[in-house]
Amino acid sequence: MCEPKTNAASKPEFSYKEILARLISFDTTSHLSNLPLIEYVRSFLAEHDVESQLFLDDAGEKASLHAIIGPKTDGGIGLSGHTDVVPVLGQNWTVEPFQLTARKNRLYGRGTTDMKGFLACVLACVPQFKRLDLVKPIHILFSYDEEVGCTGVRPMIARMGKDFPMPGVVIVGEPTNLKVVDAHKGPGLWTLQIKGRSAHSSMPGLGVNAISYAGLFMEELACFARELEANSRDERFDPPFTTLQVTTISGGSATNIVPAGCELKFNARALPGYDIQDIENRLLAFIKGRCLPEMHSIAPEADMNLKLTHQVPPFSASSNSPAVALALALRESNETFAVSYATEAGLFEEAGAPSVVCGPGSIAQAHTVDEWIEETELESCLAFLNRLAEKACVSV
């Protein structure tokens, strides 16, 4: 058994519900600052004699937070979660989204599942972590802007092993119903800007219709998507192939003008092992070989500019991953799962910290109207984290 420290001082403790209520009260939609929430977390940790450091964005308006409980040595267990949430704009909520609401065995509010419920459980366990004589450290790794491309965690990951010790394993607490996830797809997001030439709509041959070429491009994209569905499959995933689809499109100015401009965005969710550069190469070849020659024959200034704007690496843990082994032991399970949504796990894994995804709540509730999580899920997460602390008292 892991023994409490004999000199452990009594510090104020809070229930996970109290902490979750505070976390939900901060509107940390990705376009807003998360600093008020981070300052709350930092103050909470300071009350329990836990120092933390911040990693600010270039504007100084957002921050990731790192803290260590236990010895400041390499190894140990990282507990990773993001502080930002998706918008509620346009959603018809029946409860106040930034106020925790309890109904029967469910807790409602934006971020309850994705993923402030996990953050609340981690913070609620801090007093217990502090009381134990930890042999290996427990790292707290809270990030920003996960929902817009996992951008906020990257500067913090870049400092692992430099500004603070490298965790031995990282548990990313995204909602998996506490199932052990050892693989997920990797999204890529592209923007295509099309420049044509305007003309009177009665004389279309004098112009280059940017929307028409967007349609031609989308036909090629759909054809490629069907090829990926047929030829690149892994039945662990749902759907079991790399997906490719247009997500937004805009263009044109009036019904009597040949549209000179159009912009569309599309994304892929790639299976582990699939190089999304292949997607870009295929589509660039189509643009240069099929579209631009036609466009330039009328308007030399015409162009199609394709740009990869966001990419998150796919995640696939190694067969002997210590992070997966730890999570399976804590869950008393021998079964792992793969998911189609993305997390920060692949970034930690690439940086040399073996990772696994395991957290409370269902992804089916994430991003939804009246987002909720079962109280029993959070209570199971607390038990999971307490068993994890026992492991940190031995070795990881």
How would you describe what is shown here?
The longest helix has 22 residues, at 210-231. The protein is of the alpha/beta class and 396 residues long. The chain has a six-stranded mixed β-sheet. Strands 10-11-9-12 form a four-stranded antiparallel β-sheet, covered by helices on one side. The model has no long low-confidence stretch (mean pLDDT 95). The chain is elongated. It has two domains: 16-184 and 314-392, 3-Layer(aba) Sandwich (Aminopeptidase), CATH 3.40.630.10; 186-311, Alpha-Beta Plaits (2-Layer Sandwich). It has helices at 16-25, 35-47, 112-124, 126-131, 153-158, 210-231, 277-298, 322-331, 345-350, 375-392; strands at 52-56, 63-69, 77-82, 101-103, 106-108, 138-143, 169-172, 180-184, 186-195, 243-251, 261-270, 303-311, 315-316, 336-339, 355-357, 372-374. Helix content is 32%, strand content 22%. A hairpin with a 2-residue loop joins β4 and β5.
Spatial strand order of the main sheet = 1-2-6-3-7-15
The assigned CATH architecture of the largest domain is 3-Layer(aba) Sandwich
Strand content: 15-25%
How many domains make up the coordinates? 2
CATH class of the largest domain: Alpha Beta
What would you call the structural class? alpha/beta
Distance between the termini: 15 Å
- Percent range of helical residues: 25-40%
Query: Can you tell me the CATH superfamily of the largest domain?
Result: Zn peptidases
What are the low-pLDDT stretches, counting only 5+ consecutive residues below 50? none
Largest sheet: 6 strands, mixed
Strand tally is: 16
Overall mean pLDDT score? 95
CATH topology of the largest domain: Aminopeptidase
Radius of gyration: 24 Å
Q: What is the H-and-E element order?
A: HHEEEEEHHEHEEEHEEHEEHEHEEH
Outline type? elongated
